[in-house]
Amino acid sequence: MQAKKRLIMLLFVGLGLYSWDDISVKGLTAIKSAESVFIETYTSCLMGSPPEELERAFGTRIHILSREEVEQHPDDLLELATRSQVVFLTGGDPMVSTTHTDLRLRAAERGIPTAIIHGASIASAVCGLTGLQNYRFGKSCSVPYPSGLWFPTTPMETVALNQSLHLHTLVYLDISEGRYMTVNEGIAILETMAGKTGHPVPSLVIGIARAGSSEPKVVAGPPSLLTRVDFGPPLHILVIPANLHPMEEEYLHQFAEHVP
User: Selecting from 3.40.1010.10, 3.30.365.10, 3.40.190.10, 3.60.15.10, what CATH number does the domain 10-117 have?
Assistant: First the structure.
């Protein structure tokens, strides 16, 4: 009897939001059957489970890839996927980041079969934590750490556009070389951007910390007062709401802390 041909492919597996046990059963099965497992931690990471804990939980070696190895020099990973099954792990849901989209496209160009095993994403988790309705979110943006004379103002332009359309904004906060931007830092940078662009600072912002953990922190209030709140350990993210629907407002009052 002819042996069944093994399907060689690159599997993108989402780990979910906070710790190793957020992964789906399907994702765990894929990891255990893979010959090589890689992870990147620069777009997101599981603060409840560092890579060494993931290795213990999954019972396999996990190779950590840098941004350069994923975005500029993925040849070794892709070559490996032409002759063996490879799993590429990401925090959250894999294709939320354009970095992962690009890697999948590169694999397709080489004829490497790919698939996605989805995980919980912050993009949907914020709706459950804040009560803001998913269909009312506009374009999201990312606030980077300023560097030297480089101080982009595009995030504030995005917020202003969404506000004009009565849409909420999800604001991702930078992860850079072991630094995790806090809600407080993100607000301060947005306020500086507002001063440079002339756009008004929204009167209500929502800070979220450790989504997916057993004790997430969700605080709503004026930006000038939220900068004084201790949100605790990372990861943090910001939401800037537009005008609230009565049900959204009621949900926030019921399930979020408030800074008057």
Answer: 3.40.1010.10
